[in-house]
Amino acid sequence: MQVTYYPNKILRQPTKEIEKFDDNLANTAKEMIKIMREDKGVGLAGPQVSLDQAIVVIEPQPGKTKVLINPTITNNSQDMTLSEEGCLSFPGIFGIVPRYKKVTINYQDLNGKKHKLKAKDFLSYVLQHEIDHLNGNLFIDKLIKIRQGEDKLKSLLKEANETIKLYE
Ligand code: CO
Question: Distance (Å, rounded) from C-alpha 26 to C-alpha 29?
């Protein structure tokens, strides 16, 4: 398992719902957590390791890892805030993205058990970023300002033959 970088097309494909909660899934989650930590990320989604499955791992605070299977946002606050983000699929690129201040999500754990989670601030932004990945949406789509790596991003967009709102 290794990280998939933009403009690999799998990053744009919506994932499929996971229905089998077996050892294989648990091992996938374990490997994803390892990669997320090695690359010093706070979240990693299935498509970023070339999986077309709705799985996310996060570590918003050191040691506090969580595995989210089939996560979906069920509610969000009206107020938005600006989040400074990067993405393991875009090394060296950082920018400002508007996010909901609070979200509520539904997800399943590795045993298939259903959970509801209310999140605000940083955890909320991490969840929105990762759940976007499961739908083929990337943080670059929502950028309002680039902080680092603009030249690199421009050349990647050219390679991908894509445009983003920031450059329209
Ligand atoms: Co990302």
Answer: 5
Residue 112 has phi, psi (to 5 degrees) of 90, 0
In the reported structure, the alpha carbon of residue 49 is separated from the centroid of ligand 1 by a whole-number distance in angstroms of 11
- Distance between CA 106 and CA 103 in Å, rounded? 10
pLDDT tens-digit readout, 56-101: 999 999 999 999 999 999 999 999 999 999 999 999 999 999 999 9
pLDDT value of position 16:
98
Tens digits of residue pLDDT in 147-160:
999 999 999 999 99
Question: Contact at 8 Å (CB) between 66 and 57?
Answer: yes
Buried-exposed string 112-138: b where 16+ CB fall within 10 A, e elsewhere: eeeeebebeeebbbbbbbbbbbbeebb
For 41, 99, 165, 167, the CA distances from 78, given in Å and listed in that order, are: 28, 10, 22, 26
State the maximum Cα–Cα separation within the chain, in Å, rounded to a whole number: 46
CA of 24 to the centre of ligand 1 (A): 23
Please list all protein residues whose beta carbon sits less than 5 angstroms from ligand 1, which is an ion.
Answer: 87
Active site residue 130: yes
* Token pair listed for 147: 């902080």
